[in-house]
Specification:
44% of the residues lie in helices and 14% in strands. The chain is of the alpha/beta class. The chain folds into 2 domains: 304 residues, Aminopeptidase; 78 residues, no CATH class. It is globular and about 65 Å long. Bound molecules: zinc ion.
């Protein structure tokens, strides 16, 4: 696989590796604000070095500035911006985020480098979004609630197995209720009811605070209030003066595969008849494919990607999660499919797809301190980039 890839593009894997090596680390404002800034700078200079114009979109939350890095390639004749490639560059709390989402960022960078070399005649944009993972205000409130709960040490690790297991159980029960379509508040109330009898007084007080923090969150405003903060704010700002991009490809974790059977599962809320798989036997629960997620408005866009997967030599196995619903309907039945920066675009009716290794439905180190470079399958990432490049080229050549 490596040889074949290197014949066609001998530097691709090295570039991907260098990006992940540079990006890996705590990229969030609580654990390492300097690293977050250095990452934004790195992305900005990389885009400039490829020949793009870079505009930063800055916004503040409680006087703390945050930056989305936006790159544009200018065409000779004015054309509306046809295509947006995006990935979030922040990482989850206390996770070095090699797969989530240094892998996606590296992918966008390398697809961009190649597209510029192809000299497309249409405009395209690149966006690296911040604050996909957390709302800093909520995260601070959660950390304060934890720190004052008497349940954790200075590093926010639970002091007892009892607390660790109980809070884990609470989260599991909440997820169960969400999968059945409960509101955020109902799911939290259900989870509380399930664990309260075995909880200590301190644990109950902490859980009550968490419930309180979520009192204004709904299944539909969750995107923009709890997650995808940077992309939501950028899009609202952008649409004030510009027409929407015609197509959006969001790179969300493209680095992990496994040959171990039983690790791969399908996110809840999707009917298997809405999954088109190619060279994948879902029964084997084998995580060796690219996941492509689309909704009602983005089925054609997804098909451009799937046909490029089939044309790659050798073909790239994929599962196309083709949700036949709009944003509101997905919010009501399959929240997991909203968990990245394509979701704010769906809400505006803009055709967007996500390409992904399916995050924790495959990856055991999702959002942990073990999400490191060593876990990544670089040849797979290279193949995903090859497919995405051809799909992007096709999109830019159309219309
Ligand atoms: Zn992510």
């Amino acid at each position: 696989m490596v040889d074949q890839l290197e014949n066609s593009d001998k530097n691709l894997l090295d570039h991907l590796y260098q990006h992940v090596l540079n990006l890996e680390g705590y990229r969030n404002v609580f654990d390492d604000p300097e690293k977050l800034e250095a990452t934004a700078d790195y992305l900005s200079s990389a885009l400039l070095s490829f020949g793009l114009t870079v505009d930063e979109h800055q916004f503040k939350i409680d006087d703390v500035p945050f930056r989305n890095i936006i790159g544009t390639i200018e065409a000779k004749d004015y054309q509306p911006r046809e295509l947006l490639l995006c990935a979030h560059y922040d990482s989850a709390p206390l996770s070095p985020g090699a797969n989530d989402n240094a892998s996606g960022v590296a992918g966008v960078l390398e697809v961009t480098r190649w597209l510029v070399e192809q000299a497309p005649t249409k405009k395209f944009m690149v966006a690296f979004f911040t604050l996909e993972e957390i709302h800093p205000k909520t995260e601070l409130q959660i950390r304060n609630a934890l720190a004052s709960s008497g349940l954790v040490d200075d590093e926010l690790q639970f002091l007892t197995y009892h607390s660790y297991a109980l809070i884990g159980e609470f989260e599991k029960k909440q997820e169960e209720a969400l999968k059945k379509g409960a509101t955020i508040q109902a799911s939290l109330a259900f989870a509380y009811e399930q664990v309260q009898n075995s909880a200590t007084k301190k644990e109950r007080a902490y859980l009550k605070k968490i419930i309180e923090l979520n009192k204004n969150i709904t299944r539909t405003n969750w995107v923009g209030e709890s997650i995808c903060i940077g992309s939501t704010r950028w899009l609202a700002n952008y649409l004030r003066e510009n027409s929407p991009p015609k197509a959006v490809i969001n790179f969300e974790e493209i680095g992990f595969t496994t040959a171990k059977k039983g690790l791969q599962s399908i996110p809840p809320g999707i009917d298997l008849t809405h999954c088109k798989s190619y060279k994948v036997d879902l029964q084997q629960e084998l995580g060796n494919f690219l996941g492509i997620i689309s909704e009602k408005n983005s089925q054609l866009l997804a098909q451009i990607m799937t046909s490029q997967c089939e044309q790659l030599v050798p073909p790239l196995p994929y599962v196309h999660f083709a949700l036949p619903y709009n944003y509101q309907e997905i919010a009501g039945r399959a929240l997991d499919f909203l968990r990245s920066d394509h979701a704010p675009f769906w809400r505006e009716g803009i055709p967007a797809i996500a390409i992904t290794d399916t995050f924790e439905f495959r990856y055991p180190f999702y959002h942990t301190n073990a999400d490191t470079l060593e876990q990544l399958d670089f040849p797979f990432m290279g193949r995903v980039c090859q497919v995405a490049r051809q799909a992007a080229k096709e999109l830019l050549g159309k219309s």
